[in-house]
Amino acid sequence: MSTTSNSSVLSAANMGTDWLAINPGKFSASVQGSFVGRVSLQRSFDGGVTGETVTQYEDLAADTLDAAEPMLVRLYILPGDWQSGQAFCRLGQYAR
Question: Is the pTM of this model over 0.85?
């Protein structure tokens, strides 16, 4: 049993975590820190060429989500979605 994860400190538009390969099942997304802005959880089915926004976080968050199929996910700040501060972002999946 192991955990697959990545984390980044985001502080400007067009910044994001690296894409993380997720297998079907539950995975976690967390956004911590002191910031004014919006962080988007995105998924990709084309190897990270395009990202589709699934949900957005404007406050501190710790979510458990469910993936129905293999995909890539990342936390990303879209253009125009950031004002100030730092967001400490983490994605992870517990592998059996």
Answer: yes
